[in-house]
Design brief:
Elements: E1 4-7, E2 10-12, E3 18-24, E4 34-39, E5 46-51, E6 57-59, E7 67-72, E8 77-82, E9 91-98, E10 106-109, E11 113-117
Parallel strand pairs: 2-11
Antiparallel strand pairs: 1-3, 3-8, 4-5, 4-9, 5-6, 7-8, 9-10, 9-11
Length: about 120
């Protein structure tokens, strides 16, 4: 059973920064793509960023240049560094593990951590 536990959310002013962390259980972390989704009230869940086992990264256009996803395989942890935060970044952020295919969808989800950007 894979467990994904997020932390690091909170309240921050516009222009501020937060770093989210996700610790994964199990032995498959190093060979799976990991990612972060977010969902704001009344909006669809959207993919924010993902990182492959080879550390190839992809970002939503809305966060490019501001967010950085990274991973530490020794710690089974994936991070999302969020800089220059905007009110529209307010959402619950979910850590995900993707399936084994190159473009496989997520197969495990964390419980989420709230990020609120407000003055």
């Amino acid at each position: 059973q894979v467990q994904l536990v997020e932390s690091g959310g909170g309240l921050v002013q516009p222009g501020g920064s937060l770093r989210l962390s996700c610790v994964a259980s199990g032995s498959m972390f190093r060979i799976r793509t990991m990612g972060w989704y977010r969902q704001a009230p009344g909006k669809q869940r959207e993919l924010v960023a993902r990182i492959s086992p080879g550390e190839i990264t992809n970002y939503a256009d809305s966060v490019k240049g501001r967010f950085t996803i990274s991973r530490d395989n020794a710690k089974n942890t994936v991070y999302l560094q969020m800089n220059s935060l905007k009110p529209e970044d307010t959402a619950v952020y979910y850590c995900t593990r993707f399936g084994g295919g190159i473009w496989a969808p997520p197969d495990y989800w964390g419980q989420g951590t709230q990020v609120t950007v407000s003055s």
